[in-house]
Amino acid sequence: MTVARPIVAVIPFGARGTTPRAGAWARQLAARLVERFAADDAVDVRPVFLVALPEAASEAGYLVFGSSPDASLAAEYGRSLGATYALTGIYREDGGSRRLEATLVDVGSGTVRATRSIAIAPGTLATAEPALARWLARAVGANAASASDVPTAANETAYAAMLEGMDEEVTTTLLRQSDQAGADEAIGRALERYLAALTADPEAAPAEERLLVLAAESLERGDIGRQIRALEDLIVIRPRSWRAHYILGKLRAEAGHTSEAIVALEHAHALHPLSDPDLVRLAELYANAGASASAFGHLRRIAPTSAAYGPAQELAAIIALQRGDLEAGRAAFERAVAAGASGWELHASYGAALHARGENVEAIPHYEAALAANGPAIVRLNLARALFETGNRERAAGELDKLLESETSGEIAGQARRLRFGIRHADLEQALESAGRGAVEGDATRFAEARSAFDSALAAEPDLWEAHFGLGLLARHRGDAQTALASFARVLELWPEHPDALHELGVALLMANDVDQAVGALERAAALRPAEPAYLADAGFAQMRAGDLAAARERLEHASALDADDPITRAYLQELDRVQATVGKGT
User: Fold this and answer.
1) Whole-angstrom Cα distance, residue 333 to residue 341?
2) Extents of the domains making up the chain
3) CATH for 1-151?
4) How far, in whole angstroms, is CA 200 from its chain's centroid?
């Protein structure tokens, strides 16, 4: 005869105590008991979540964190889970003594089946969990493996910190829909408590597990900064935790810290061999860092029998093609296709390699295949270029029309408009090129001709950013700050974050004495073009105008290091020296 496995519903324990975290300890000790029996075949232990949801938006809702219901109510909670028994408990602190009082209720009859009071001596909080588990197993008549004497943590400091971290996770869950900032703060506290637990006991596996789960979940939420720091701290405590290195690598890659991600994933790989898909990802990171030899080294380890072989060969083909090694790329391309890999990146890279060699007819079908595989707008732009270069001007223009139906701003849209403009208005494009050179060089004798060329170009293509940019330069040269501002602002509508437009906007803002806005524009332009000394110098001059002399000095000295002979940078530095000397005399 088969005896049914007893089912125990555990109600979050209440607390009566003086310790500020007594309630958290009580609630989460009950949660730990459930986790302790999670893989036990002898007893099915289930958590009870006591939640009262509002019937209407105006009514209050309550979550009972911990409680001590009477036998009848406890039986109702147990019945809702299909349980045989319900377990309630109270953690008490009284007169310097501590104890946990547990009550087991028979759900069928609604009567008390057994009770137990577990004394908790100073420093022994961690032993309450295994003691409670042993008693519960005996009380329900089960020979449970989870009822061992092994505590979850080696000492009370670690165990208490782990319980507090678990409670902060509950707080995070409660606040996430209504108070995201509060939820984020609770996550930070949870990470801090788990690290405190591991500092007190590096072998506290459940604390490490919870920290790793929080870090992994942050990949979906996008809140990864604090988790990266927590994992770095965890690795100091547990340097051989391969999962800590692994998740840290994933988070660093998500944050764009490619080199640091590679280091973390290589550490993980040394401690525990990565899966083939993870090796492909690691190879991709190496490729992005310009270390193609290391990328190929990992890709070669993936056998043809692996499910990741196709993606590995696809990546190998892309890397080879981007390096200009068409023969190696072609061989890897064929292996990837034979293995069933045919993503848009593969066809787009092969098409681009052929295109770069002037083999435009051969490139076109690969661009088309990439588009059929949902390739992005850049693929259609490259297809249009290849078509144009083979003489198929009308179809090229048609592809650009399709592109611009979905891409209305940004670099790709700007390049598409310029190419379409050149296809359909070749004469105007030549005039635009000449006018652009005149505007950049500042040749006043050509300004009227340039203005006419820009106006004609905009009459044919109103969203041609180059023409608006040229008009802005002409306005700046003649001292018309407001017209220049309007022109550069229009360029930034068409191509947000365009470095040259941001720079020229900043210069025009300085002309208009709008220093604060000028600083923002010029700083952003310098950040987008960090190797351009003129941009750094102008950002430094704007900071000097704004009164931040330390920031001005840093930008100008950096610009001078890039180009020591630039006369404008030298003039700015001389002016800064004069201003600082004047300020020094004033103090």
Assistant:
1) 9
2) 1-151
3) 3.40.50.10070
4) 31
